[in-house]
Amino acid sequence: MTEIKQCSEIKLVGIRVFCPGNEYIEEIPKASKQLSERVHEIKNVLNPSLQHGAFVVDSCSDEEDGYWVCVEVSDYEDIPENMVTLRIPAQRYAVIRHKGSNEKIRETYSKLHQWIEGNGYRRLMDQWHLEVFHDWSNPKEIEVELMDTIM
After folding, report:
1. Residue 15 has what pLDDT?
2. Strand runs (DSSP E) across the chain, as ranges?
């Protein structure tokens, strides 16, 4: 089921993944595991059982290129070594839930994009998009909310 969500600003702390496009499917789970092992180092975590992925589809700068694996925080404080911060502005999203293999996530994205177009919305490709992971321990059985920024 697809729905619309309006989210206020989100503050994230985590690990930036930057690699050739075909390697993200392998590198993101590695970063996710590393973040899970280090989440205790991050201060002001709102929900350690959720991980947020963030990316810009059509990034126009090197600072926006890549994929961020993070947890949400209430405030930035003493950021751990080799971790980064990311501030996502208040935005509106079309949201669909994906359960299953990370290799099949593109199929769920395709459904989401068809829904967006069919309902008269426009994807904002130059804005931050989110993936909120509820279960990421096994790449073959993930549960994630796919959040495409829309107008």
Report:
1. 98
2. 3-7, 10-17, 51-56, 67-73, 84-88, 91-100, 128-135, 142-149
Contact in structure between 28 and 67 (CB atoms under 8 Å): yes
Model-wide pTM > 0.85 = yes
Mean pLDDT of 17-35: 93
Residue 43 DSSP code: T
How many residues are present in the chain? 151
Provide the token pair at 76: 């930035």
- Helices of type H across the chain: 24-38, 105-118
* Amino acid sitting at position 44: N
Instruction: Give the pair of three-digit tokens for residue 91.
Output: 């935005």
Return the biggest CA–CA distance within the chain. 45
Q: Report the pLDDT averaged over residues 76-87.
A: 98
